[in-house]
Amino acid sequence: MNSFNPDALKLENQLCFPLYAASKEVVRKYRPYLDALDLTYTQYIAMMVLWEEKSINVKALGARLFLDSGTLTPMLKSMEAKGLITRTRSKADERVVVATITQKGEELKKAAKAVPLKMAGCISLNSEEALQLYTLLYKILE
Amino acid sequence: MNSFNPDALKLENQLCFPLYAASKEVVRKYRPYLDALDLTYTQYIAMMVLWEEKSINVKALGARLFLDSGTLTPMLKSMEAKGLITRTRSKADERVVVATITQKGEELKKAAKAVPLKMAGCISLNSEEALQLYTLLYKILE
DNA sequence: TATATTTAAATTGTGCACAATTTAATTTTA
DNA sequence: TAAAATTAAATTGTGCACAATTTAAATATA
Q1: Contact between A45 and A115 (Cβ < 8 Å)
Q2: Considering just the CA atoms, what is the radius of gyration of chain A in Å?
Q3: What is the pLDDT of residue A74?
Protein backbone atom coordinates (compact mmCIF):
# COMPACT_ATOMS: atom_id res chain seq x y z
CA MET A 1 0.00 0.00 0.00
CA ASN A 2 1.45 3.25 -1.06
CA SER A 3 -1.29 5.84 -0.56
CA PHE A 4 -2.18 7.39 2.79
CA ASN A 5 -5.37 8.65 4.29
CA PRO A 6 -5.31 12.38 3.51
CA ASP A 7 -7.03 13.13 6.85
CA ALA A 8 -4.61 11.10 8.92
CA LEU A 9 -2.74 14.24 9.98
CA LYS A 10 -5.82 16.21 11.05
CA LEU A 11 -5.80 17.07 14.74
CA GLU A 12 -9.41 15.96 15.13
CA ASN A 13 -8.52 12.47 13.92
CA GLN A 14 -5.81 11.90 16.49
CA LEU A 15 -6.32 9.76 19.57
CA CYS A 16 -3.13 11.08 21.16
CA PHE A 17 -4.34 14.66 21.27
CA PRO A 18 -7.49 14.29 23.42
CA LEU A 19 -5.46 11.96 25.63
CA TYR A 20 -2.76 14.60 26.06
CA ALA A 21 -5.24 17.45 26.49
CA ALA A 22 -7.60 15.62 28.87
CA SER A 23 -4.70 14.54 31.04
CA LYS A 24 -3.51 18.12 31.39
CA GLU A 25 -7.02 19.44 32.03
CA VAL A 26 -7.65 16.88 34.76
CA VAL A 27 -4.30 17.59 36.45
CA ARG A 28 -5.10 21.31 36.22
CA LYS A 29 -8.43 20.74 37.95
CA TYR A 30 -6.62 19.04 40.83
CA ARG A 31 -4.48 22.11 41.43
CA PRO A 32 -6.72 24.09 43.83
CA TYR A 33 -7.38 21.01 45.98
CA LEU A 34 -3.72 20.00 46.02
CA ASP A 35 -2.51 23.56 46.62
CA ALA A 36 -4.50 23.42 49.85
CA LEU A 37 -2.44 20.35 50.83
CA ASP A 38 0.82 21.95 49.62
CA LEU A 39 1.26 19.07 47.15
CA THR A 40 1.92 19.04 43.43
CA TYR A 41 0.09 16.42 41.38
CA THR A 42 3.22 14.27 41.09
CA GLN A 43 3.76 14.47 44.84
CA TYR A 44 0.11 13.52 45.37
CA ILE A 45 0.38 10.28 43.39
CA ALA A 46 3.65 9.51 45.20
CA MET A 47 1.88 10.06 48.52
CA MET A 48 -0.88 7.65 47.44
CA VAL A 49 1.77 4.95 47.01
CA LEU A 50 3.34 5.85 50.36
CA TRP A 51 0.02 5.89 52.25
CA GLU A 52 -0.42 2.34 51.02
CA GLU A 53 3.16 0.98 51.22
CA LYS A 54 4.64 3.14 54.02
CA SER A 55 8.09 2.55 52.53
CA ILE A 56 9.36 2.07 48.97
CA ASN A 57 12.62 2.47 47.08
CA VAL A 58 13.10 4.92 44.21
CA LYS A 59 13.17 2.29 41.48
CA ALA A 60 9.99 0.57 42.65
CA LEU A 61 8.24 3.92 43.05
CA GLY A 62 9.33 4.84 39.54
CA ALA A 63 7.89 1.60 38.18
CA ARG A 64 4.56 2.33 39.90
CA LEU A 65 4.39 5.94 38.71
CA PHE A 66 6.08 5.60 35.27
CA LEU A 67 8.73 8.11 36.38
CA ASP A 68 12.53 7.94 36.43
CA SER A 69 15.12 9.09 38.96
CA GLY A 70 15.56 12.36 37.08
CA THR A 71 12.04 13.28 38.09
CA LEU A 72 11.85 11.44 41.41
CA THR A 73 15.13 12.47 43.03
CA PRO A 74 14.36 16.20 43.21
CA MET A 75 10.70 15.54 44.03
CA LEU A 76 11.53 13.20 46.92
CA LYS A 77 14.10 15.70 48.23
CA SER A 78 11.41 18.37 48.26
CA MET A 79 8.99 16.01 50.02
CA GLU A 80 11.69 15.25 52.56
CA ALA A 81 12.26 18.99 53.08
CA LYS A 82 8.53 19.34 53.82
CA GLY A 83 8.77 16.54 56.40
CA LEU A 84 6.44 14.14 54.56
CA ILE A 85 9.04 11.39 54.09
CA THR A 86 12.54 10.36 55.06
CA ARG A 87 15.15 9.19 52.54
CA THR A 88 17.66 6.57 53.65
CA ARG A 89 20.19 4.36 51.87
CA SER A 90 19.44 0.66 52.19
CA LYS A 91 21.89 -1.16 54.51
CA ALA A 92 21.67 -4.30 52.37
CA ASP A 93 22.40 -2.45 49.11
CA GLU A 94 23.94 0.99 49.35
CA ARG A 95 22.80 1.87 45.84
CA VAL A 96 19.16 1.80 46.89
CA VAL A 97 17.41 4.81 48.42
CA VAL A 98 14.26 4.09 50.41
CA ALA A 99 11.54 6.69 50.93
CA THR A 100 9.54 6.16 54.14
CA ILE A 101 6.44 8.06 55.16
CA THR A 102 6.63 10.14 58.35
CA GLN A 103 3.94 10.83 60.95
CA LYS A 104 3.34 14.17 59.24
CA GLY A 105 2.95 12.35 55.92
CA GLU A 106 0.45 9.96 57.49
CA GLU A 107 -1.52 12.85 58.92
CA LEU A 108 -1.79 14.54 55.54
CA LYS A 109 -3.98 11.63 54.48
CA LYS A 110 -6.85 12.93 56.62
CA ALA A 111 -6.89 16.20 54.71
CA ALA A 112 -6.51 14.38 51.39
CA LYS A 113 -9.49 12.07 51.92
CA ALA A 114 -11.94 14.58 50.49
CA VAL A 115 -10.01 15.12 47.25
CA PRO A 116 -11.19 12.11 45.17
CA LEU A 117 -14.86 12.92 45.71
CA LYS A 118 -14.33 16.58 44.87
CA MET A 119 -12.47 15.58 41.70
CA ALA A 120 -15.15 13.09 40.67
CA GLY A 121 -17.52 16.05 40.57
CA CYS A 122 -15.18 17.83 38.12
CA ILE A 123 -15.13 15.03 35.55
CA SER A 124 -18.19 14.82 33.34
CA LEU A 125 -18.39 11.02 33.14
CA ASN A 126 -20.83 8.71 34.89
CA SER A 127 -19.47 5.72 36.77
CA GLU A 128 -19.95 3.34 33.85
CA GLU A 129 -18.09 5.61 31.47
CA ALA A 130 -15.35 6.16 34.05
CA LEU A 131 -14.85 2.41 34.38
CA GLN A 132 -14.78 2.04 30.60
CA LEU A 133 -12.17 4.77 30.32
CA TYR A 134 -10.14 3.26 33.16
CA THR A 135 -10.09 -0.12 31.41
CA LEU A 136 -9.06 1.33 28.05
CA LEU A 137 -6.27 3.42 29.58
CA TYR A 138 -4.78 0.44 31.40
CA LYS A 139 -4.91 -1.47 28.12
CA ILE A 140 -2.57 1.18 26.71
CA LEU A 141 -0.29 1.00 29.74
CA GLU A 142 0.22 -2.77 29.63
CA MET B 1 -22.80 11.38 54.57
CA ASN B 2 -19.76 11.77 56.69
CA SER B 3 -17.68 8.62 56.11
CA PHE B 4 -15.37 8.11 53.15
CA ASN B 5 -14.39 5.13 51.10
CA PRO B 6 -11.15 3.94 52.73
CA ASP B 7 -9.80 2.89 49.30
CA ALA B 8 -10.55 6.22 47.65
CA LEU B 9 -6.91 7.29 47.97
CA LYS B 10 -5.40 4.13 46.48
CA LEU B 11 -3.49 4.76 43.29
CA GLU B 12 -5.16 1.81 41.57
CA ASN B 13 -8.58 3.36 42.17
CA GLN B 14 -7.76 6.64 40.47
CA LEU B 15 -8.93 7.50 36.99
CA CYS B 16 -6.56 10.46 36.79
CA PHE B 17 -3.46 8.34 37.14
CA PRO B 18 -3.81 6.03 34.11
CA LEU B 19 -4.89 9.09 32.15
CA TYR B 20 -1.75 10.94 33.18
CA ALA B 21 0.52 7.92 32.69
CA ALA B 22 -0.96 6.82 29.36
CA SER B 23 -0.70 10.32 27.98
CA LYS B 24 2.99 10.49 28.84
CA GLU B 25 3.67 7.00 27.50
CA VAL B 26 1.99 7.78 24.19
CA VAL B 27 3.85 11.07 23.80
CA ARG B 28 7.08 9.23 24.66
CA LYS B 29 6.38 6.70 21.92
CA TYR B 30 6.05 9.52 19.39
CA ARG B 31 9.53 10.78 20.21
CA PRO B 32 11.63 8.69 17.79
CA TYR B 33 9.29 9.44 14.88
CA LEU B 34 9.12 13.14 15.71
CA ASP B 35 12.87 13.40 16.35
CA ALA B 36 13.30 12.32 12.74
CA LEU B 37 11.19 15.35 11.74
CA ASP B 38 12.99 17.64 14.23
CA LEU B 39 9.65 18.30 15.96
CA THR B 40 8.63 18.06 19.58
CA TYR B 41 5.18 16.64 20.31
CA THR B 42 3.76 20.10 21.02
CA GLN B 43 5.21 21.40 17.76
CA TYR B 44 3.72 18.40 15.95
CA ILE B 45 0.16 19.13 17.11
CA ALA B 46 0.69 22.79 16.25
CA MET B 47 1.84 21.75 12.76
CA MET B 48 -1.30 19.64 12.37
CA VAL B 49 -3.40 22.77 12.93
CA LEU B 50 -1.19 24.74 10.52
CA TRP B 51 -1.30 22.07 7.79
CA GLU B 52 -5.06 22.41 7.96
CA GLU B 53 -5.50 26.16 8.55
CA LYS B 54 -2.34 27.57 6.91
CA SER B 55 -2.60 30.62 9.17
CA ILE B 56 -3.86 31.12 12.72
CA ASN B 57 -3.38 33.60 15.56
CA VAL B 58 -1.89 32.68 18.92
CA LYS B 59 -5.13 32.88 20.85
CA ALA B 60 -7.05 30.67 18.41
CA LEU B 61 -4.19 28.19 18.30
CA GLY B 62 -4.16 28.12 22.09
CA ALA B 63 -7.89 27.41 22.15
CA ARG B 64 -7.40 24.49 19.73
CA LEU B 65 -4.45 23.00 21.63
CA PHE B 66 -5.44 23.90 25.23
CA LEU B 67 -2.22 25.89 25.60
CA ASP B 68 -1.57 29.49 26.65
CA SER B 69 0.80 32.16 25.36
CA GLY B 70 3.36 31.22 28.00
CA THR B 71 3.78 27.89 26.21
CA LEU B 72 3.04 29.02 22.67
CA THR B 73 5.18 32.15 22.40
CA PRO B 74 8.56 30.39 22.86
CA MET B 75 7.41 27.36 20.86
CA LEU B 76 6.30 29.49 17.89
CA LYS B 77 9.56 31.45 18.04
CA SER B 78 11.49 28.20 17.83
CA MET B 79 9.33 27.02 14.91
CA GLU B 80 9.96 30.34 13.20
CA ALA B 81 13.71 29.92 13.79
CA LYS B 82 13.48 26.52 12.05
CA GLY B 83 11.71 28.13 9.10
CA LEU B 84 8.43 26.24 9.51
CA ILE B 85 6.28 29.32 10.10
CA THR B 86 6.36 33.10 10.01
CA ARG B 87 5.06 35.27 12.86
CA THR B 88 3.51 38.60 11.95
CA ARG B 89 1.47 41.18 13.82
CA SER B 90 -2.02 41.61 12.45
CA LYS B 91 -2.49 44.93 10.61
CA ALA B 92 -6.09 45.16 11.75
CA ASP B 93 -5.22 44.57 15.43
CA GLU B 94 -1.63 45.07 16.48
CA ARG B 95 -2.13 42.95 19.61
CA VAL B 96 -2.66 39.83 17.53
CA VAL B 97 0.21 37.67 16.30
CA VAL B 98 -0.50 35.42 13.36
CA ALA B 99 1.48 32.26 12.65
CA THR B 100 1.55 31.29 8.98
CA ILE B 101 2.97 28.09 7.55
CA THR B 102 5.92 28.42 5.14
CA GLN B 103 6.79 26.32 2.10
CA LYS B 104 9.24 24.40 4.26
CA GLY B 105 6.48 23.81 6.80
CA GLU B 106 4.20 22.53 4.04
CA GLU B 107 6.88 20.20 2.79
CA LEU B 108 7.38 18.69 6.23
CA LYS B 109 3.89 17.24 5.87
CA LYS B 110 5.14 14.71 3.33
CA ALA B 111 7.59 13.27 5.84
CA ALA B 112 4.98 13.38 8.60
CA LYS B 113 2.38 11.40 6.66
CA ALA B 114 3.75 8.07 7.83
CA VAL B 115 3.66 8.97 11.53
CA PRO B 116 -0.01 8.25 12.39
CA LEU B 117 0.14 4.73 10.96
CA LYS B 118 3.40 3.97 12.78
CA MET B 119 1.91 5.28 16.01
CA ALA B 120 -1.29 3.25 15.58
CA GLY B 121 0.94 0.19 15.64
CA CYS B 122 2.32 1.29 19.02
CA ILE B 123 -1.05 1.53 20.76
CA SER B 124 -2.55 -1.76 21.84
CA LEU B 125 -6.18 -0.91 21.07
CA ASN B 126 -8.30 -2.13 18.18
CA SER B 127 -10.24 0.44 16.17
CA GLU B 128 -13.44 -0.02 18.15
CA GLU B 129 -11.65 0.51 21.45
CA ALA B 130 -9.80 3.50 20.03
CA LEU B 131 -13.08 5.11 19.00
CA GLN B 132 -14.56 4.40 22.42
CA LEU B 133 -11.55 5.99 24.11
CA TYR B 134 -11.67 8.97 21.75
CA THR B 135 -15.33 9.57 22.60
CA LEU B 136 -14.78 9.34 26.36
CA LEU B 137 -11.79 11.69 26.26
CA TYR B 138 -13.70 14.36 24.33
CA LYS B 139 -16.50 14.02 26.89
CA ILE B 140 -13.97 15.10 29.52
CA LEU B 141 -12.74 17.98 27.36
CA GLU B 142 -16.19 19.50 26.75
C1' DT C 1 -12.93 62.44 23.52
C1' DA C 2 -10.27 61.51 27.74
C1' DT C 3 -10.28 57.75 30.99
C1' DA C 4 -11.18 53.13 32.33
C1' DT C 5 -11.62 48.50 31.05
C1' DT C 6 -10.65 44.70 28.40
C1' DT C 7 -7.90 41.98 25.47
C1' DA C 8 -3.65 39.58 23.20
C1' DA C 9 1.02 38.38 23.67
C1' DA C 10 5.04 38.37 26.01
C1' DT C 11 7.64 37.80 30.16
C1' DT C 12 8.92 35.78 34.58
C1' DG C 13 9.39 32.13 37.68
C1' DT C 14 8.53 27.33 39.30
C1' DG C 15 8.11 22.50 38.70
C1' DC C 16 7.86 18.72 36.20
C1' DA C 17 9.47 15.07 32.43
C1' DC C 18 12.90 12.73 30.24
C1' DA C 19 17.16 11.64 27.58
C1' DA C 20 21.91 11.12 28.39
C1' DT C 21 25.71 10.90 31.34
C1' DT C 22 28.05 10.13 35.72
C1' DT C 23 29.03 7.95 40.09
C1' DA C 24 29.19 4.38 43.13
C1' DA C 25 27.85 -0.14 44.56
C1' DT C 26 26.92 -4.89 43.42
C1' DT C 27 27.03 -8.95 40.67
C1' DT C 28 29.02 -11.79 36.84
C1' DT C 29 32.37 -14.13 34.69
C1' DA C 30 36.97 -15.06 32.96
C1' DT D 1 39.35 -13.15 42.97
C1' DA D 2 40.36 -9.35 39.76
C1' DA D 3 38.20 -7.23 35.78
C1' DA D 4 34.00 -6.48 33.31
C1' DA D 5 29.27 -5.79 33.25
C1' DT D 6 25.20 -4.41 35.42
C1' DT D 7 22.39 -1.77 38.40
C1' DA D 8 20.40 2.31 41.26
C1' DA D 9 20.44 7.09 41.99
C1' DA D 10 22.00 11.37 41.05
C1' DT D 11 23.26 14.91 37.89
C1' DT D 12 22.99 17.75 33.72
C1' DG D 13 20.63 19.94 30.16
C1' DT D 14 16.47 20.92 27.31
C1' DG D 15 11.71 21.75 26.62
C1' DC D 16 7.35 22.00 27.99
C1' DA D 17 3.21 23.71 31.07
C1' DC D 18 1.10 27.02 33.58
C1' DA D 19 0.19 30.69 37.07
C1' DA D 20 0.94 35.46 37.63
C1' DT D 21 2.41 39.73 36.01
C1' DT D 22 3.53 43.14 32.50
C1' DT D 23 3.08 45.69 28.21
C1' DA D 24 0.75 47.58 24.61
C1' DA D 25 -3.27 47.98 21.80
C1' DA D 26 -8.20 48.22 21.21
C1' DT D 27 -12.76 48.99 22.97
C1' DA D 28 -16.20 50.79 26.16
C1' DT D 29 -18.02 54.38 28.83
C1' DA D 30 -18.39 58.60 31.61
Answers
A1: no
A2: 19
A3: 96
DSSP for B69-124? HHHHHHHHHHHHHTTSEEEEE-SS-TT-EEEEE-HHHHHHHHHHTTHHHHHHTTS-
Q: What is the mean pLDDT of chain B?
A: 94
Contact at CB, A133 and B130, closer than 8 angstroms: no
Map residue A88 onto helix, strand or coil: strand
Euclidean distance between CA atoms B55 and B58, whole angstroms: 10
Of chain A residues 12-41, which have a beta carbon within 7 Å of strand D? 20, 24-25, 27-28, 31
**pLDDT (mean) for A19-29:** 96
Is the domain covering B14-141 a CATH 3.40.1160.10 domain?
no
A42 touches strand C (CB under 7 A): yes
Is the per-residue pLDDT at B1 higher than 60? no
Q: Where are the domains of chain A?
A: 14-141
Give me the pLDDT at residue A3, please: 52
